[in-house]
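Table S2 (text version). Query chain:
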Amino acid sequence: MTSLADVVDIVIGVDTHVDSHSAAIIHAGTGAVLDEITVPTTEAGYQQMVDFADPHPILRAWAIEGTSSHGAGLVRRLTDELVIELDRPTRPTRRNGAKSDPIDAVRAGREALSRTMNGTPRSTGDRQALSVLLAARRSAVDGYTTAQRQIHGLVVAAPAVLRDKLRAKKTTQMISLAANWRINPAWDTETRTTATILKTLARRARDLKTEAEIHEKAMKKIITSWRPDLLTVPGVGPVVGAVVLCAWSHPGRIRSEAAFAMLAGTAPIPANSGQITTRYRVNHHGDRQLNRALHTIVLSRQRHDDPTKAYTQRRTTEGKTPREIRRCLKRYAARQIFRILEHPPA
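Corresponding structure-token output:
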């Protein structure tokens, strides 16, 4: 497909918000605005938007911003429609700095017409379940890390009777000891208060760690039933696998292996000029969670995978830095994982 205008008659651009959605019907050939509407984000509102589009030609596409967030409810209603996912514009790209929901809806429709490549929304079902579990686990891990830091900070300035019990202990031992403390009524106010807070933080850290482990087991169960072949890839565990599947979503969504590498931020960006044709910049764009997952895969392989160890050694003797070697390995990992995802075993 060279242009969306070649296959549809109209494009319905939708600007999504928490309480309302604004839509504009754009003629595919001329870019003219045929009609506009704003509806509430309710089931009745979604049906009203579908009824709004029905009188127009059946060859149509929906260009929606935020298909995985504010627009998720509308996307679920449009199961038999061609839906295109658009990113939200930065302020300088808006026309003359103007900003309103109808203007953004018109911009969404025209932008979809101007692109030669358009993305489709991520799938729901197992992918969405993994996304929810990842968000919950990330929150639990962040809370667990914060509680650990607070415990270490309190131990440094704690009264000697408390500090001596926890000093030189590993973090897990500190949490285990503090969580089972008995508060001595004979202690002074500072000691009692510090001991109480340490006990509270330790129990919080223990509970959050347990919660994170429960979420990880749930992710592994979903991946095992959906794409068990992904877990056989060296360096891929439940968390990394969930991140990869959430970014990839379903076959055909990402058009090529190079596009997947660009999404992951592992594709080097050419920076050539004149006679210099071998210069590249590091790619800081794309899905940073996916990039981090590939980084985790590479670190694991460098420690436990013999072919990766041999490759690292060879590239080191060639003068490559550890960072440059990891970038190469991340690019290889992205290629391997994309091919596995797009071509599952029979």
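Notes on Table S2: The beta strands are 10-16, 20-27, 33-40, 60-65, 82-86, 269-270, 280-281. The first helix runs from residue 43 to 53.
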